[in-house]
């Protein structure tokens, strides 16, 4: 079986753009919430789970302060279980769920995979449970509390983690946005370059090219810049960089895999 790569967006969020680029304060910016499925001969892998469809019946009750100041544009059909179904993958077929980090727009559908093994940095698991005060509501406790007994492979900080030992899916620790943030390198046999899925290690091209960053969504600025340098290095050796929350490039990227 050949590897196959399926990118999706879990609806969109409309945010204050200054929280991402520290420049356009007050400018409304609609961005995708990327999540991915990868069919691999050793099993189906999901990378990030987007927003939670369970919240749609009572958004204020489920997300609480986590969605304050954010406009959520989401239908049940945008959420991961429905997106997987569209490409013929049942939620019970997913063997590994890899988490970049556990913020609300990435961890929403963890509850939909009770039988999968979750591959997360241990530092992120610990921090999400009891974050610093200024990060408390970027994690939605309702998304996380039901996963307490799930199977987690909590991997160490700093190391690159080769999921199947064949170089096809390699997790790179990219802290800064959060302690245990990780990005995923996807090397597809029939695609020219490895793809780096940055997620929130680098929201947009402007963070990559011109360095703006916002302390609003920052755990550690020094580590953020170290991670940006790692991403630049990977770009320099030929990786195709997919920014985590950039609307301008998103449609063109996913069309390559439609
Ligand atoms: Zn985040």
The number of domains is: 1
Number of helices: 9
Helix vs. strand class: alpha/beta
CATH class: Alpha Beta
Beta-strand proportion = 25-35%
> If strands are numbered along the chain, what order do they take across the biggest sheet?
4-1-2-3-5-6-7
Order of helices and strands: EHEEHEHEHEHHEEEEEHHEH
Which molecules are bound besides the chains? zinc ion
What is the topological layout?
Layout: E1 4-16, H1 18-21, E2 28-40, E3 43-47, H2 59-63, E4 71-73, H3 80-86, E5 94-98, H4 104-107, E6 117-121, H5 122-129, H6 141-144, E7 151-155, E8 161-162, E9 169-173, E10 182-186, E11 195-199, H7 205-210, H8 221-236, E12 240-243, H9 247-255
Parallel strand pairs: 3-5, 5-6, 6-7, 11-12
Antiparallel strand pairs: 1-2, 1-4, 2-3, 8-9, 9-10, 10-11
The structure holds zinc ion.
Keywords:
7-stranded mixed β-sheet, 5-stranded mixed β-sheet, about 260 residues, binds zinc ion, Metallo-beta-lactamase, Chain A, alpha/beta
Structure characterization notes:
It is a single chain. The chain is α/β, with parallel strands linked by helices and 258 residues long. The chain has a single domain, classed as Metallo-beta-lactamase, Chain A. 24% of the residues lie in helices and 27% in strands. Strands 4-1-2-3-5-6-7 form a 7-stranded mixed β-sheet. A hairpin with a 6-residue loop joins β8 and β9. The relative contact order is 0.16. The model has no long low-confidence stretch (mean pLDDT 95). Zinc ion (ZN) binds next to loops.
């Amino acid at each position: 079986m050949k590897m196959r790569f399926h990118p999706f967006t879990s609806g969109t969020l409309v945010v204050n753009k200054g929280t991402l680029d520290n420049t356009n304060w007050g400018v409304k910016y609609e961005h995708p919430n990327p999540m991915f499925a990868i069919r691999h001969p050793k099993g189906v892998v999901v990378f990030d789970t987007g927003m939670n469809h369970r919240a749609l019946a009572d958004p204020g009750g489920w997300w609480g302060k986590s969605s304050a100041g954010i406009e959520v544009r989401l239908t049940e059909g945008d959420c991961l279980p429905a997106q997987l179904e569209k490409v013929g993958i049942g939620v019970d077929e997913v063997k590994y769920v890899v988490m970049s980090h556990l913020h609300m727009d990435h961890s929403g559908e963890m509850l939909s995979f009770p039988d999968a093994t979750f591959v997360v940095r241990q530092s992120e698991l610990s921090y999400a449970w009891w974050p610093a005060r200024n990060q408390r509501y970027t994690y939605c406790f309702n998304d996380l509390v039901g996963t307490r007994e799930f199977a987690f492979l909590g991997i160490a900080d700093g190391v690159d983690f080769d999921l199947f030992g064949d170089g096809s899916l390699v997790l790179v620790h990219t802290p800064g946005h959060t302690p245990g943030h990780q990005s995923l390198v996807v090397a597809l046999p029939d695609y020219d370059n490895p793809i780096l899925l940055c997620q929130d290690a680098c929201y947009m091209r402007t963070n990559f090219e011109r360095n703006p960053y916002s302390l609003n969504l920052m755990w550690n600025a020094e580590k953020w810049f170290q991670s940006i340098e790692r991403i630049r290095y990977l770009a320099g050796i030929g990786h195709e960089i997919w920014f985590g929350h950039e609307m301008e490039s998103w449609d063109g990227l996913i069309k390559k895999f439609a």
